[in-house]
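Why predict the complex rather than its parts? Because the way molecules touch one another can change local conformation, and only a joint prediction can capture that. The input here totals 1170 residues.
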Amino acid sequence: MTRTLKLLRRVLRGPASRRRILAGPAAVMALGVAAFAFMAVTGTAAQGANAPVSTNASDIAAGEQLFAAHCQSCHGVNGVGGTNGSPELIDAGAAAADFYITTGRMPLNATNNQALRHHSYFNATQTRDLVAYIADLPAINSAHPLPRVGEEAFNPTSPGIPTVAPLCTGPGTPSGCVTLSDGQRYYSLNCAQCHQAAGAGGMLSKGDIVPSLHNASLTQVAEAMRVGPSPMPVFGTGQLSAKQVSAIAQYVQYLHNPNNRGGLGISHFGPIAEGFVGIVIGFGVLMLASRLIGNRG
Amino acid sequence: MTTTDRPTASGDHSYAGYDEDDDPKVKLHYGIDPHDPWPDDVPRGQDDSRWRFQDNPRLARRAELKIAFCWTLTMLSGIALAIVYCVGGQPQVEGTMLFVGFVGLGVGLILWARDLLPGTEVTASRGTHNISDAAKREAAVEAFNRTVDPIARRPFLLRMLGLVGGVFGVAALFPIASLGDRPHRTLYKTAWGPGVRLVDQDNNPLKPADIAVNGILTVFPENNIESPQSSTVLINLGDAPFDVRPGTVGWNIGGLVAFSKICTHAGCPVGLYNAQTHQLVCPCHQSTFDVLKGCNPVFGPASRSLPQLPLAVNNAGYLISSEGYQQPVGPGFWNRA
Amino acid sequence: MSTTEERLAAEKRMKYERVGLDAVDDRLGSSGFIQKALDKIFPDHWSFMVGEIAMYCFVVLLITGVYLALYYVPSAADVVYHPTPGHGYMPLAGQHMSEAYQSVLNISFNVRAGLVMRQMHHWAAVVFMAAIAFHLCRIFFTGAFRRPRETNWVIGLLLLLSVMLEGFSGYSLPDDLLSGTGLRVVFSIVESIPFIGTWLAFDLWGSQFPGSSLIPRLFVVHEFLFPLAIIGLLTAHLMLIWRQKHTDFPGPGKTETNIRGSRLWPQYAIKSGALLMIIFGVLGALGGLFQINAIWLYGPYNPYTVSAGAQPDWYVGWLDGSVRLWPHWEFRSFGHEIANPFFPGVLVPGIVFTIMFAWPQIDRLIYKDHVAHNLLDRPRDKPFRTAVGVGALAFFTDLTFASGTDLLGNDLHMPFERLIEILQYGVFVAPLVAGAIAYKTCQALQRTDAHPIMKPVGGILIRTADGAYHTLGDEHGAHGDHDGHGHAVDDHDGNGHAAAHDDDGNGSADGNGHAAEEVDEPAAGAAISGPDPSGS
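Output of the joint prediction:
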């Protein structure tokens, strides 16, 4: 009984956890049937690595091996880029490397595909090594300069992996903390226009997908803003401060499981999806009822 | 024509051989005027006084129990609703209890009506009341015509009345004008002008270096963030080949360009920026603007470019507008062109 | 059957009722009306109840709306939101917002049962429009708008318009990001009207968009003006139905001058009341279990912010779609301009509604049919009308899809450019194709009806008093006249009834009446068919 209730609370994602549920078995059954029938699939929030970039020579060497095996065919030796349009990575920076690898966007199947989220191809150690190697590329290239072949990396400012400030949870939290309210405000102006108010994603021109943010970790959100993974624009430190970026990242994290006090969120797709539910479930049930009451002849 | 020995709706006259044509009550029950003969398309001897389980007390008792069960559910959910309300409310429980309570009540009623209350389908006369009889029609026309001649005799008064209605009616329209400001030049103006600093959402001034290459930021005229027509997007195109159109020379600072954020189609904020194709897309109706070509519309319903804001840098190194917008921002209107 | 005590009790009850009704009649002379009302017959085909679903949704809207109005603050004044943990929505703490938006947050988080009421209200609006749309289709496809019911068709369309505007004004009241975006688009559409557009827009909004007058004005519109209009029109709608009596599908024993169904008392009244209860229940379940318009996630409205996937509620979707699909045309000359939103936002709905309002007249011209009808058409018997209706549905569906191009594009991984192009062609192609298919289907179904082999399957087998058998269809195999009146048709639900069909009401003695007598007179013959023909 209590386990069922817990499960229901999770499904409903409302502040039910904060409120006492006084449900008889009938309520639980009705809720359960409704909940499982239309359960919105939500991903689990994977926390990205937030470690500083390794400068350990052995890590860099391991990274070089991985790079040669998995990246070099497109991005060229020492990341100078490829003739197939693959960008050079010399100034790409650790944040870009970490973002593209942890979100599984790289390695890419075909060069003309939009890089979209997949399961990460590399494990944590491999990721650390590759990031270390790519972060070290400027040094490697100044030591052994090679002609650059590919297009310039998207944001040639070599941002490091940003750290995300914690949420203010009460009087005892550190001074650098951020609030969800600030996050909502900055998200609403800078992000919602593409990623939708609840982070459900959308559509850009020329068939470019705006991904849903429901799987993005804190670090990945911050990295994406700094890196501007194509076709997303860049949000540099002059546009959004580290604190603002942290606030947005925290708010996106909140959007993974937002307050769905009203019940099932219907994927937060908005009025058209709600209209569909209203017509199919609401009006549909009422039609059935009138068929039962009325004459079917 | 034919009679049956079943009880009829009138109840008291249900013996064989009784001619219903004589009973005005039966005719009334079947929508027939007591003075009219029984119509051919209304069968006689219909029985609407029986209920489904009339002859089966066992089934009737069972139906009663079913109804009682439904209504017990309703009572229980009523109690549950009261408790939930007192404890502070919980939308999901409230919704479920409302469902159980009302549907229980409804299903109980349906069972009652279906199983325990009289009323099979009956066929009755529609009556003739969609059309009145001739005498009534004539009388109505006469009553109306009483005034036609005298009025037609006074054409002057009739025309005068029309004129009065027109003039007085127009006078009554004038309060409408007080509902809103006059548009005047409002639609042509924004809060931008020579030397106005560009600020971000928190009213912080910006320097050219603040916008990263391929970066975008919504900017506002300083101290006028809420000015509805003034919101502007500031984009750093980097080295991308920006097409400076005639008349806009010197309006960009390197790759930095600023365009009105108000869509020229229906006024939504043009927010979606594809940094790869350098296109701005409106999330409302998918109008697409090519930033490299001066925000020329390339797809969707918009037919005009987003107006460009002339940029400059002041002595302190902050971004300013060197002038306001040179054309009205936002969607078209009658006097626009 | 009944014991003496029971009969005595029944007599006692009768006596009391008699005293009550007589007392009223002594003063009002009302017994004639009361008898007519209680004996009134309502055909109870299930599809006739959809109009009731609409009406009862309106009842839910009134009740929940009053509750919401007690807490809603119609003010655009700027306030700073100060929730306390557990009472209010913390992620918006400290933000500037309009008082209206704050009050809707309060309804959603602080007022007990407020969120359920709010969501029930919104769901009721969604279902209300669905029921109206279905009801409209039923009236159209069965020809229920024909003489003498043209006026009620017009009243029904006025109701549709009022409800759409009422819904849109309600959608706009919370002043959240989504509704504000919708209002911005409407402002632009009003602004685009030639000659008077800017003046009209400024008079409605009180100033340049967004201004501070609109929210209080919308409140008056949503709480008073349109509800009053809806109540008035609904009353007229019902009075006309009461006066003209309900239409019915053709069927055995049914003629233009009789009516078959349940009496108002007790069957119809109780079942209708039960439907009201079930609607309360279903909307309560939707309101409590399915989140609708989570305004706290959209955030307060700012003219410079917008969310992807901005759409109106579903019933305005076709207008939004029309605005999305209209090509980038604007007309400028002599220093004036007809802006783009005018065409899809004013002209298209103007034309659509004009055709809808004029349809009874158009239909009358097409079918040269000037007589009154109480029996409905089966859609297959009027292929052209059915084709027009199906085409219109395809048109609306295409436009409604267009209002979700960004969402659909994301789901289908298809560029919205291509999707919009497809839907642009679809506006013209889909209605034609759907209409043609509908037309051909109707003709095929008619041929099936006419085929002699099909007759016994769909017909009624009659045993005459002398023991001979024959089917109803045999008597009416030949069509009565050139445009399809007065022929025998199969029951459209395929449950085995034959339908004696006499829809031109001119009393053509082509045997229908004769057949009806046979069916309904138990002594003369027995009707043999699948389900119980009395169908209770």
